[in-house]
Amino acid sequence: MATQLPGMLLNSSGLTLAGGRSLNCRKSQPPAAISSALPPPLSSSTIQVVGWKGAGESGNGSLKLGNDFEGFQEEYDWNDVEADLYHWTKTLRPVQWYPGHIAKTEKELKEQLKLMDVVIEVRDARIPMSTSHPQMDSWLGNRKRILVLNREDMISTADRNAWATYYAKQGIRVVFSNGQLGMGTLKLGRLAKALAGTVNIKRREKGLLPRPVRAGVVGYPNVGKSSLVNRLLKRRMCPAAPRPGVTRELKWVRFGKDLELLDSPGIIPMRISDQAAAIKLAICDDIGERSYNATDVAAILVQMLSKLPTVGNKALRDRYKIETDGRCGRTFVQKLAAQLFNSDNNQAAFRILQDFRKGKFGWIALEQPPR
């Protein structure tokens, strides 16, 4: 029996759109636009991993196919993952989230930015590109900025090095931090004061008394802004919790005698045009739960993890004792629901999402630097 969902049918083989097209269970060849970009299957037992270094790496950048990488019959490239992600998301209900307080915050924040000596933009280290506000550059203009990639403990050393190299080549000052444990906060505080040090030099030249440096902390919801501020202050001055939308108003706090910090609520575009980015926000819990269908998001996460050499089908099979070919994430969610949650797909989906967020598949980034 098929179950009618908005614009789609769900049957035993997975999610099917009008016209019989499969959304997640792609057992046939990929569309021509994507398949034409894929190289032919390798004839040997190695795969070429582009831009990835890890255990078992040989001198020429190839990896021997073992149990951890079974199912990889083509050259692995992050562009392939992004292409598939676009394919998987374009037929889903759009993920949109814009609580009322964000519109008010955005207006107030743009006014406060005029008073800033330096701006600290916080992003999620797992998805630095997806947690970059598209209007941030225009808001800041020539104002000095420090980029903070928070949750560095949730990505691998290879991921960290890749992003550090990428931003260094662009001349962008980047600090990796762990807002929960305070790593990176001392460096951040020193850098903020150093960048804005010219403020009081100019004030003295004008015969004015020195004042504290003003630094604004901005970024998407739930990327760890308030936790970072609390760690800088070494006391809990700003409300913080592991969910989006906790901070709802701007708040100035003093850090010593020479630095003032503005903690701000998360800001997000009124409309997210890049749905691949929106799915990654949902996976990383950087957007409200009511904005997305957990089963859809978990199904896509399963398919993404199955393609990553550091995870693969074997890691999913070992954790849940369920077979997967990496092509039908929705079927995987349904099997897990039947096995552990009395066929409640929603609970099964949240288990998979929580396992990823807690590092049960290892600490991995879902984005790599653009080339």
TrEMBL record:
Ranges in coiled-coil conformation: none
Q: Name one GO molecular function term.
A: GTPase activity
- State if GTP-binding is listed as a keyword: yes
Keyword field: GTP-binding, Nucleotide-binding
One GO location term (cellular component): mitochondrion
Residue ranges of the G domain?
215-273
Q: Which GO terms describe its biological process?
A: mitochondrial translation
Protein known as: Mitochondrial ribosome-associated GTPase 1
Q: Which organism is this protein's natural source? A: Nicotiana sylvestris
